[in-house]
Amino acid sequence: MTIAFLLIAFPLLVIFAAVNDIMTMTIPNRIPMALVISFALFAPTVGLPAMTIGLHATTAMLVLAVTFGFFACGWIGGGDAKLAAAAALWFGPTLPLLDFALLTSLIGAALTLTLLAARRLPLPVFAETWTWARRLHAISAGVPYGVALAAAALIVYPDSALWKATMGL
């Protein structure tokens, strides 16, 4: 049950966040909250010591402070800030967190450039009735950065301490 929880909870929640961000340009608070609760339930069951769990929580709070600064500057949305912090909770103060940050930046840049290029082209006729496609295509729209956060999280997740503890690595 524990391994199934690990294999499913984190990936499904970050994918759900990305899909929500694409469809609505928002990440509901319940998704980062579910990531936090899942971590709180899961980390002790795989034997993470209390000190390590505390370091993971401290890391998440630092990431939240930095990303809320980005939010205050208008660079990312509030949901993106909360999702980044919730993902950081799962990675803790380890190399995978740095990989997560770097990959998020690179994927986010590629996503931004792709959207900017796509917005110069007319929206395909078949997509004109899709509210989410019209919203994404609007020149004034932002970038659903939750997609970059989720993609980076999924790539880095197998290198996380929680994954390795569960797999006995």
UniProtKB/TrEMBL annotation:
<feature type="transmembrane region" description="Helical">
    <location>
        <begin position="60"/>
        <end position="77"/>
    </location>
</feature>
<dbReference type="InterPro" id="IPR052218">
    <property type="entry name" value="Preflagellin_Peptidase"/>
</dbReference>
<feature type="domain" description="Prepilin type IV endopeptidase peptidase">
    <location>
        <begin position="9"/>
        <end position="113"/>
    </location>
</feature>
<protein>
    <submittedName>
        <fullName>Prepilin peptidase CpaA</fullName>
    </submittedName>
</protein>
<keyword id="KW-1003">Cell membrane</keyword>
<keyword id="KW-1133">Transmembrane helix</keyword>
<feature type="transmembrane region" description="Helical">
    <location>
        <begin position="97"/>
        <end position="118"/>
    </location>
</feature>
<dbReference type="Pfam" id="PF01478">
    <property type="entry name" value="Peptidase_A24"/>
</dbReference>
<keyword id="KW-0472">Membrane</keyword>
<feature type="transmembrane region" description="Helical">
    <location>
        <begin position="138"/>
        <end position="157"/>
    </location>
</feature>
<dbReference type="InterPro" id="IPR000045">
    <property type="entry name" value="Prepilin_IV_endopep_pep"/>
</dbReference>
<feature type="transmembrane region" description="Helical">
    <location>
        <begin position="33"/>
        <end position="53"/>
    </location>
</feature>
<keyword id="KW-0812">Transmembrane</keyword>
<dbReference type="GO" id="GO:0004190">
    <property type="term" value="F:aspartic-type endopeptidase activity"/>
</dbReference>
<dbReference type="GO" id="GO:0005886">
    <property type="term" value="C:plasma membrane"/>
</dbReference>
